[in-house]
From TrEMBL:
SUPFAM superfamilies, alphabetized: Periplasmic binding protein-like II, Winged helix' DNA-binding domain
Protein name: Hydrogen peroxide-inducible genes activator
GO molecular function, one term: DNA-binding transcription factor activity
InterPro entries for this protein: LysR_HTH_N, LysR_subst-bd, WH-like_DNA-bd_sf, WH_DNA-bd_sf
Keywords: Activator, DNA-binding, Transcription, Transcription regulation
PROSITE patterns cross-referenced by the UniProt entry: HTH_LYSR
PANTHER family on file: HYDROGEN PEROXIDE-INDUCIBLE GENES ACTIVATOR, TRANSCRIPTIONAL DUAL REGULATOR HCAR-RELATED
Pfam families on file: HTH_1, LysR_substrate
KW Endoplasmic reticulum (keyword) present: no
Family named by the database record: Belongs to the LysR transcriptional regulatory family.
Gene Ontology cellular component terms for the protein in this record: protein-DNA complex
Domain HTH lysR-type: 4-61
């Protein structure tokens, strides 16, 4: 008789993600020998190897690849049972895993976490900052509970709630402060510095300027808004940043900031979660706290 445990399934999932026994053990909060023993017991229970062990990494066997999506489904369902239990307590408590994209996290999170802890002090908040495609995958797999992103994401399995809109502002060298604000057409002819591929903010900026993302560009790409602003200060071009980032990113840089004329480029910020989650009411409460935090930034 098979005797698989939830711990074994979680260690199996961790090892898939990290592809290394030591890293998976660290992420799981146990020793490497303990994790190795649990994986070995799982393989013995199933009667078939799950991983091919190499010197520096591990990879799934054919059977392991077939098993992986089923294990994710099981863990996601167990997570939803835990959510149901939290819901029955009529209070927001326990672990809450929130994903946030990098062009929101550094600016909104300090205020948001402060308000959240004030209203729900027993919450154990875990933050995951990464790009939208990764957050969508992790939300679908049950690795996070909800995410704060730029909308729309247009995933049929997810609920989307718009919380607020914010403008983009133009950041250019200090010496350009008195010049007219360029139009979207003008920006096509300028050296426009953008975030690297994969950031939704990059796509939104290109859309405003009516530039196809597939076209080759001579501008420099950065991995963060901080890098882009510093490149502008060095005289390498101009960039667009969201309004919430303005005070943090430009206060000590030799740049000028300008608002675009109407219709201004903007983005919708909101929350997404799985439609099957029993915590929908709680997520609407979270959305309200996000709105309060965002309003306090203006």
């Amino acid at each position: 008789m098979m005797n698989l445990t939830l711990k074994q399934l979680r260690y199996f999932e961790a090892l898939i993600h990290h592809k290394h026994f030591g890293h998976a053990a660290d992420a799981s909060g146990i020793s490497q020998p303990a994790l190795s023993m649990q994986i070995k017991e799982m393989e013995e229970s199933l009667g078939v190897p799950l991983f091919e062990r190499a010197a520096r990494q591990v990879r799934l066997t054919r059977f392991g690849e077939d098993l992986a999506p089923r294990v994710r489904d099981i863990l996601r369902s167990v997570g939803e049972v835990e959510d149901m239990a939290r819901l029955a307590q009529h209070t927001m408590s326990g672990r809450l895993r929130i994903g946030v994209i990098p062009t929101i996290a550094p600016y909104l999170l300090p205020s948001f976490i402060g308000h959240l802890k004030q209203e729900h002090p027993t919450l154990d908040v875990h933050i995951r900052e990464t790009l939208t495609p990764r957050l969508i995958t992790e939300l679908a797999e049950g690795k996070i509970d909800t995410a704060i992103v730029a909308l729309p994401v247009s995933e049929p399995a997810f609920e989307e709630v718009t919380i607020f809109e914010e403008d983009f502002v133009l950041v250019r060298p200090e010496s350009d402060a008195m010049r007219p604000v360029p139009s979207a057409a003008d920006l096509q002819l300028m050296k426009l510095l953008l975030l690297e591929e994969g950031h939704c903010f990059r796509d939104q900026a290109l859309s405003f300027c009516n530039i196809r993302s597939a076209l080759p560009r001579d501008g420099l790409d950065g991995s963060s808004l901080t890098t882009l602003v510093q490149l502008v200060a060095a005289g390498l071009g101009v960039t667009l940043i969201p309004q919430m980032a303005m005070s943090v990113e430009t206060h000590s840089a030799a740049v000028s900031v300008a608002q675009f004329p109407e219709p201004r480029p903007k983005r919708k910020i909101g929350m997404i979660w799985r439609k099957t989650s029993p915590l929908t009411d709680q997520f609407h409460q979270l959305a309200r706290i996000v709105e309060i935090a965002a309003n306090g930034m203006h």
